[in-house]
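step: validate -> pass
step: tokenize input -> pass
step: predict -> running
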Amino acid sequence: KGKSALWGKWMPVATDCPAGYGLVDVQGLPVASLASAVDCQVCAPGRFSKAFTEDGRQTYRCQECEVGQHQSRFGQSQCIQCEAGTFAADVGQATCSPCGRGTYINSTGATACWSCGAQGLWTTSKAVPAVVGGQEKWIEIEGATSAGSCHCVEGRHLSAGQCKICIEGAFCPGSGVLTLLPGFYSTLGHPGAVLRCFGNTLRCPGGAPETCAEGRDPSSPAC
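step: predict -> pass
step: emit ->
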């Protein structure tokens, strides 16, 4: 009996968790105190192993990552801030979510993303290099890290800070820029006010607003 008491001091206690592990209850669920703990388990993704002292004993609990943070691996001692272009709105996240189309965030540890503008009018996009002889193409992206990725949706162009509808005679690929089709004309001041080229349509080759054929007057709709 005396020896048993002595051995008991050296026998491991089930709730003396090492780093990377944390207290769990009879159902194997993480708990925060020794009172409801029966064992230790490795901390799962979305949590980290945090040391604490209770009743003079130090052990570890598996604590949820805070908002703006994540942890994708088992048995870790800390969580990681979300990278720019991603966010975590809730606690206990294994991964951060990318900013959706039309939103961006340029800082780490974000809990939400910033909006580019009115939903349905703005998106986040980037240019795809054109193949030989083809046109530059714009594709929508998620996980934008800068307001520089904000553009008007395809079919609209940016004018005076607003995404306005692209009317007949123009092409708006999703870059925010309006491109005139051959035979049409508009001014730099009002690019969306597209007019048919007066007279010979060859005078208006299309392209950027106020573009006329070589030798013609770009300040006139007649070129």
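step: describe -> The mean pLDDT is 89.
step: cleanup -> pass
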